[in-house]
Amino acid sequence: MSLEWIGFVGTGLVVVAYLPQVIHLVRARCASGVSLRAYLVWCASAALLLTYAISTADAVFIALQAYQFMALSAIYLLAFRHRGRSCDLHCRSEPAPSDLVVAALGVGTGDADPRRLAGNPS
User: Fold this and answer.
1) I need a labelling partner for 41 at 20 to 30 A (CA). Which of 18, 72, 79, 85 fits?
2) Number of domains in the chain
């Protein structure tokens, strides 16, 4: 019995995984948190892997890489088109995790002593 169906189920999960990002980019026109550089590298990677998949004639690998290339390209193009735009969800005034670290350490407030932060109490 062929286990090829497992590969197609995995490909289906990849399809489902990309949908929230694509839907958010289309509906909200919000590119917050999308790294254009990362998606460009992923697009190039998917194109190379698709070329390899075609050369091996592996149906599962071809389907997976073809979809990945299309989804990654769509995300890249939509994020490029909507770069600099944020939706209400991403415009909340909650501090970013890095802001919380800065506040906890007192960095930038004048309260932090670099020697104390380095572990030197003197």
Assistant:
1) 85
2) 2
Burial class (CB in 10 A: 0-12, 13-18, 19+), 64: buried
Q: Which domain holds residue 106?
A: 92-122
CATH number at residue 51: 1.20.1280.290
Mean pLDDT for all residues in the chain: 83
> Same structural domain for residues 11 and 65?
yes
In tens, the pLDDT along 28-45 reads 999 888 999 999 999 999
93 pLDDT band, cuts 50/70/90, is low
Q: What is the 3-state secondary structure (H, E, C) of 29-98?
A: CCCCCCCHHHHHHHHHHHHHHHHHHHHHCCHHHHHHHHHHHHHHHHHHHHHHHCCCCCCCHHHCCCCCHH
49 and 84 share one domain: yes
